[in-house]
Specification:
The structure holds 2 protein chains of 2 kinds. By secondary structure, chain A is α/β, with parallel strands linked by helices. Chain A has 18 helices and 8 strands. In chain A, the strands form 2 sheets. Chain A has a 4-stranded parallel sheet with strand order 3-2-1-4, with helices on both faces. A 4-stranded mixed sheet of chain A has the order 6-5-8-7, covered by helices on one side. Chain A starts with 17 loop residues before the first helix and ends with a helix. Among the domains of chain B are: about 5-95, Ubiquitin-like (UB roll); about 280-345 and about 530-685, 3-Layer(aba) Sandwich (Rossmann fold), CATH 3.40.50.740; about 360-380 and about 405-520, Dimethylsulfoxide Reductase, domain 2; about 800-895, Barwin-like endoglucanases, CATH 2.40.40.20. In chain B, about 25% of the residues lie in helices and about 15% in strands. Classes of the chains: A alpha/beta, B alpha/beta.
Chain lengths: ~425, ~900
């Protein structure tokens, strides 16, 4: 398979500097666009490529961009492009890889995206703990300003763009694009109500596009090589390649660039090396901590947005978390709910006060103090917290996904906790 | 008008409103927390959930938030669907996880929106078995009590305090279920409008601290419609009483004036009514200078002996009711009546009255000011002189935001979205003042000028508006801004005691009209009835002869002088006033609290406060409004108008002797002046009945009526009768659908909190079903007010500074300062200087300065201001220690080397280890 996103990332894991990046075709997409393509042309290419957002929601990138008011339809003032590099989804580490080892790929994608939507200021809003990536991005930005890829009149095209790295002060919710915008403005990182969407009223009230790192990394390749090429990369319904990751008790946890639509079994068994000795696969979260569990029966599904969606889960970030047969699913879900309850911004009631309630019920069950009616309470909470629209943003519904699917697939484990008065896994493992 | 369907019931709703508003307007009970009619929607509490259906066939629907969903033609909703009801119940259940359930000891109990909503959604049984989160409470000053454990995180406090009122020192902190609303550290809340937190908070996190010290439940309070006497804005208030003490003041909604909010002086400044400094009995001065208490009749007989068929003069008061002033004027004769202003103030008020009667500009209500899209403020620190107006102006500057929102099709109630869109873009507000004002933070431009130059600036703007190109580019710019606006507003006032400034403001407003604009002109006056009194004595001439000093000079030729609720030392000319007391003529004073004028009088009569009497006040808007007694005056106190009627009867004063009822006094007063003719329309007459019933001051749950005084006497007193108004000192009657001026408190079945107001409103955030209280007295002939040009700036000698009055919400007002909490916040009298001058004088904030004016010397605490006009220093206006200082006086300043730094004293607070 052709490597696209990771073409500059070798086995030696050395970061790619400007020279190495340019030597491998870097900034050709930008040169081509600035010389030959209008922003409208770029927009059309991206729309035709069927690129979908890699941050988790899978929203078509071209469509997202198309809502940005262009030309006379836009009131005078700035437009902004923001890279969402606040990678905090449990189990996700794909963006870090891309930023640490090939920062220019992201920057080139951002310059092209900014050119397409007419943005003149851009930010990389990056998770504060990503200190290596922050430094490498800053070094790369300095190189770009020096080389004329950023700043005024880029490559003599008349197009100007400033780019800043903004390390987040921390919080998972900053990954939600409107909470991210609030955080960038120095406000509490609460998500905003939509509409209005950021495309028309985003950062500082101006048109703003927020895209995930991986999404933006695809842009230069699509612009340079065209939509048809990109469409040809996927082996299933979706286009392009995708960074897939596997964590959990597999032999070879890690992150690989594979075609869209790669079967799950291939990712787990071929790339992650299958389960560790003595362990069986019990289930997995296909797209990170806020996606529904899938099990054995889903192993042959293709990792495509709609395929995984039909199976009752979401492709999310494409970074799977594996549950083995000797790890307590209740404990795993409790761990996730603890995380989400803690990361609630505290804005809306079902999330702020509902998730800690779920956490408390799960703590009771896991510690052997559960009652039979607790499962009804959990089911009630899933209906209350889990439905999109009940809450202000998608955090709490996302948090309910592993819980609701665990109750569906691993109900027996919950029952055993309650009837036995203790966690059965702790006794068998002697932990 | 779109039609929407709620539970298959078709509703005609107003375009642009949201579903929550539509439901409330239709009389439906849809619970809510975070939405507030004045602050719009943010969708955080998720309480107002309904089910929305795609079409008639859709049976599943999806949950939407009423407050975040605009009405659209044909949209279908269900409020009663099981899933909607279950969701709303779940929201309350989760809000209750950490709520302490301490209702029995909570100051909100019985008027708690959270209690109401909990009952409304039907939540009863608790399933959560975990521990509750707890928080540390903060000391927030003497006014607000903080109890964070009760918080349900609706964000209303933060949104009110920061977004609506412009406060900086209260914010949401932390996250998840640890969100904390408080200050960055303990300390006094800095906003002049902090008290509204008490009413904005849907539960007991922020409660009225002075009220808690002598607490009663809402249902045990006796209330009456009243008008704030703290300044001239005329906010409507609902004071509550029990056991003969004024317990608290709540906001009383007036769509056009104060809406939902009061300033802290208005809410907390009435504690003086319970003060030990109140007069209980009449007193006759004994030769040794002390007073002998006498009964009412004895006092009246004595007074009548002194005044009947004698040469008597009267001094009125801008803080007394129009009726009392009128009666005194009739009693002594117009020629012998002095309104009781200082000479400077009298002159300016006379100008203002003349202006209001002729100007082409509208004299706007606060509601109308909120619609202004460009504002010029000349010389007034509105936040400190007409606080509630300033809160309105903070909304006016948002019109830019609403304009941007409208361009995007974003409704105004989408509060967070509108604020995010506009960020710090505001409608222009230009403040021209001598020193910083508390609106500087939202002003587009602040210009610091001495008083005369402010006037010159105003005249310059007027000239520039007439097309003349002025040398000062700032003047031209301001003119351009005002000219570009649709509804420009000019604000000035009497606080600088500078007629030129007022005149220049009038000139700008008039020129705007000449230039084809419909302008608004708002002139702030000082006291609750300054304008009413000025109207009463206005005879159309600019005769300013009747003044206190002139009266004092001829005091020896008089037999007696009657002073109505006036502390003369606050009216300037202290030397002359002393002549009045030194003369042989008898001085009869009636007032509420002990003061220097009473001390100098020969006979003192204890007057009832506003909470114990009836009267009309005229606000700076020219709106006459009636206050009614909340409870009957105790001891031998009488409302001043009744004292005066008794004196008139004793004197057999023919016209007055026939008056018995307050309504008759009002009618006589209305007849006395064409400008007062509308007085009879201010409130219904005493024989008004609401569907045959009087309006009860007490709630239907009022307890202990037969027993609450049993500790004093086991004999059950007769229920007092109110023969003077349509209100009753009783639980019986009907408090529903009455005229707005008669609503004593708000309550509706299932809505025990102040949120029941929406049941009294004709529509959400609209006028009350019973109209809007008050009547406009002044109608302009529209011929245009012409004002003379201003004098030029005086040349200063080196090291001399012009005194500029600096007003404070807490401290400058005569009456409220006698409230412990206000006194604490007022601090000590001060001299306010700029940073450069401070450096030159070698002083820092808190040091002392010797201020020399003529020969008098004052040692005052230094306050440093950020913005001070050339040659200007400010002084604490209205503080009793600095009454001798007059605006415009020249002073010299030296560091006070012997300044004693007082240790801070806590008068009213309960700060201390035990509190934390």
């Amino acid at each position: 398979m052709e490597k696209v996103l990771t073409r500059n990332i070798g086995a030696d894991l050395k970061p790619t500097g400007l020279n190495a990046y340019e030597a491998n075709g870097g900034y050709q997409g930008l040169r081509k666009a600035l010389a030959e393509l209008s922003p409208k042309d770029c927009q059309d290419v991206i729309s035709a490529s069927n690129l979908r957002g890699r941050g988790g929601a899978g929203f078509p990138t071209g469509m997202k961009w198309s809502f940005v008011p262009m030309g006379d339809r836009c009131t005078p003032g700035h437009k902004y492009l923001v890279c969402n590099a606040d990678e905090m989804e449990p189990g996700a580490f794909k963006d870090r890889l891309l930023m640490e080892y090939d920062p220019h790929q992201l920057i080139e994608g951002m310059i092209l995206s900014a050119y397409t939507i007419g943005a003149d200021i851009s930010y990389i809003f990056i998770r504060g703990e990503y200190v290596v990536a922050i430094q490498r991005l800053r070094d790369a930005l300095a190189e770009c300003y020096a080389a004329g890829y950023l700043g005024d009149n880029i490559l003599g095209s008349g197009f100007s763009l400033k780019m800043y790295v903004h390390p987040s002060a921390g919080r998972y919710i900053c990954g939600e694009e409107t909470a991210l915008i609030n955080a960038l403005e120095g406000k509490r990182a609460n998500p905003r109500a939509k509409p209005p969407f950021p495309q028309v009223s985003g950062l500082w009230g101006r048109p703003t596009i927020v895209n995930n790192v991986e999404t933006l990394c695809n842009i230069s390749h699509i612009i340079y090589r065209g939509a048809d090429w990109f469409n040809s990369l996927g082996v299933g319904e979706d286009s392009g390649t995708k960074m897939f990751g596997v964590s959990g008790r597999v032999k070879n946890p890690g992150c690989w660039e594979l075609p869209m639509g790669t079967p799950i079994r291939e990712i787990i068994e071929d790339h992650a090396g299958g389960m560790q000795e003595g362990l069986q696969l019990k289930g997995f979260l296909p797209g990170g901590g806020s996606t529904d569990f899938l099990t054995h029966e889903h192993l042959d599904l293709a990792m495509d947005y709609n395929v995984i969606g039909k199976a009752g889960s979401r492709m999310g970030t494409g970074t799977m978390i594996i549950l083995d047969d000797q790890t307590c699913p209740v404990g795993m879900v409790l761990n996730l709910i603890r995380f989400f309850a803690h990361e609630s911004c505290g804005f809306c009631t079902p999330c702020r006060d509902g998730l800690p309630w779920s956490r408390q019920v799960l703590e009771d069950i896991e510690s052997g103090h559960g009652q039979a009616e607790d499962l009804e309470t959990l089911a009630y909470q899933i209906g209350y917290i889990g439905a999109i629209g009940n809450t202000h943003c998608a955090l709490a519904p996302g948090a309910m996904e592993p819980l609701q699917s665990a109750l569906k697939y691993f109900r027996d484990d919950f029952d055993r906790h309650i009837s036995g008065g203790c966690c059965p896994y702790h006794t068998t493992r002697g932990a | 008008m779109p039609t929407i369907y709620i539970d298959d019931q078709a509703l005609e709703v107003a375009q642009g409103e949201n579903i929550l508003e539509a439901c409330l307007n239709a009389g439906m009970d849809l619970p809510y927390f975070c939405w507030h009619p004045a602050m719009g929607s943010i969708g955080s509490c998720r309480q107002c959930a309904l089910v929305q259906y795609q079409n008639e066939e859709d049976t599943k629907g999806r949950i939407v938030m009423g407050c975040m969903t605009p009405v659209t033609e044909g949209a279908r909703f269900s409020l009663s669907a099981d899933n909607a009801g279950e969701f709303r119940e779940a929201v309350v259940e989760s809000l209750m996880l950490n709520h302490p359930h301490d209702c029995p000891v909570c100051g909100e109990g019985g008027e708690c929106h959270l209690q109401d909503m909990t009952v409304m959604v039907g939540h009863r049984d608790r399933r959560y078995t975990g521990k509750k989160n707890t928080h540390r409470n903060q000391y927030l000053g003497p006014l607000i009590h903080h109890e964070m454990n009760r918080c349900i995180t609706c964000y209303r406090c933060e949104r009110y305090y920061r977004d609506y009122a412009g406060g900086k020192d209260l914010a949401a902190q932390a996250s998840h279920d640890h969100v904390y609303f408080g200050r960055h550290e303990e300390g006094v809340l800095q906003s002049e409008f902090s008290g509204n937190l008490v009413e904005v908070c849907p539960t007991g996190v922020f409660t009225d601290k002075p009220f808690l010290k002598h607490y009663s439940r809402k249902w045990d309070l006796q209330s009456a419609p009243s008008i704030c006497s703290g300044c001239a804005v005329g906010c409507n208030i609902a004071p509550g009483e029990r056991y003969g003490r004024l317990k608290r003041v709540h906001n009383r909604y007036n769509h056009e004036v104060n809406g939902y909010f009061l300033c802290d002086r208005g809410r907390f400044g009435s504690g003086y009514i319970n003060s030990d400094a109140r007069l209980d009995y009449a007193g006759i001065k004994k030769p040794d200078g002390s007073f002998m208490a006498v009964h009412q009749q004895q006092a009246i007989d004595t007074a009548v002996g002194w005044i009947k068929n004698k040469k008597v003069a009267g001094i009125g008061s801008p803080r007394a009711s129009l009726e009392a002033n009128y009666l005194l004027r009739e009693l002594v004769g117009a020629a012998n009546f002095v309104p009781g202003f200082s000479d400077r103030e009298a002159a300016i008020l006379s100008t203002i009255v003349r202006t209001l009667k002729t100007t082409t500009a509208a004299n706007p209500s606060i509601k109308q000011m909120e619609a202004a899209d460009a504002i010029l403020i000349l010389g007034e620190d509105v936040t400190n002189t007409a606080p509630r107006v300033a809160l309105g102006l903070r909304q006016s500057v948002r019109n830019k935001a609403f304009e941007l929102a409208a361009q995007m099709g974003l409704p105004q109630w989408q509060d967070a979205a509108v604020r995010n869109l506009a960020q710090d873009q505001r409608s222009p507000m230009i403040i021209v003042s001598a020193m910083d004002t508390r609106l500087d933070d939202v002003a587009s431009q602040c210009i610091s000028l001495p008083a005369d130059d402010i006037a010159a600036f105003g005249y310059g703007v007027a000239k520039a508006l007439s097309g003349e190109k002025m040398d000062d580019e700032a003047v031209n710019q301001v003119a351009d801004i005002l000219f570009a606006a649709n509804s420009p507003l000019v604000i000035s006032g009497t606080s600088m005691l500078h007629e030129g400034i007022i005149n220049s403001a009038v000139a700008v407003a008039e020129q705007l009209h000449t230039s084809g604009k419909s302008s608004m002109l708002s002139l702030c006056v000082a006291e609750s009835n300054s304008l009413g009194l000025a109207l009463l004595v206005d005879d159309g001439q600019s005769d300013r002869a009747a003044s206190i000093p002139k009266l004092a000079k001829r005091a020896s030729k008089l037999d007696a002088v009657i002073i109505l609720e006036n502390t003369l030392e606050r009216r300037g000319a202290s030397g002359e006033i002393q002549q009045l007391f030194d003369a042989d003529s008898k001085v009869i004073s009636m007032d509420i609290l002990e003061n220097t004028t009473l001390g100098n009088s020969d006979l003192v009569l204890p007057a009832a406060s506003y909470a114990e009497s009836q009267g009309t006040l005229v606000s700076s808007e020219g709106r006459a409004q009636r206050y009614f007694p909340v409870y009957q005056p105790s001891a031998e106190r009488l409302p001043s108008w009744q004292w005066l009627l008794k004196l008139a009867a004793g004197c057999e004063c023919s016209e007055l002797a026939e008056l018995e009822y307050f309504d008759q006094v009002v009618a006589a007063c209305a007849n006395s002046q064409p400008a007062l003719a509308q007085l009879v329309d201010v409130a219904p007459l005493r024989d008004y009945r609401n569907q045959g019933l009087k309006i009860p001051r007490q709630t239907h749950r009022y307890s202990g009526r037969t027993a609450m005084n049993a500790g004093v006497s086991v004999h059950e007193p007769q229920q007092p009768k109110d023969t003077q108004s349509p209100l009753a000192f009783s639980m019986e009657g009907l408090n529903r659908d009455e005229p707005a001026s008669l609503i004593p408190y708000v309550w509706s079945p299932g809505w025990n909190s102040n949120q029941s107001l929406q049941k009294f409103q004709a529509e959400v955030d609209g006028p009350l079903k019973g109209g809007t209280s008050g009547a406009h007295l002044i109608s302009s002939d529209g011929l245009g007010a012409v004002q003379p040009q201003v004098s030029v700036t005086a040349n200063l000698k080196p090291h001399q500074w012009h005194l500029v009055p600096v007003h404070r919400v807490h401290g400058s007002d005569e009456m409220s300062i006698n409230t412990d909490e206000v006194a604490e916040l007022a601090g000590r009298p001060f001299i306010a200087i700029g940073e450069k001058l401070a450096e030159k004088l070698g002083v820092v904030e808190g040091d002392g300065l010797l201020v020399t004016q003529h020969k008098a010397e004052f040692s005052l605490e230094v306050k440093i201001l950020s913005r001070v006009a050339k040659n200007c220093v400010g002084f604490s206006a209205g503080y009793s220690e600095t009454l001798e200082l007059q605006p415009g006086d020249l002073v010299t300043l030296v560091k006070d080397e012997s300044w004693v730094y007082p240790t801070p004293t806590m008068i009213a607070t309960d700060r201390g280890a035990a509190h934390v």
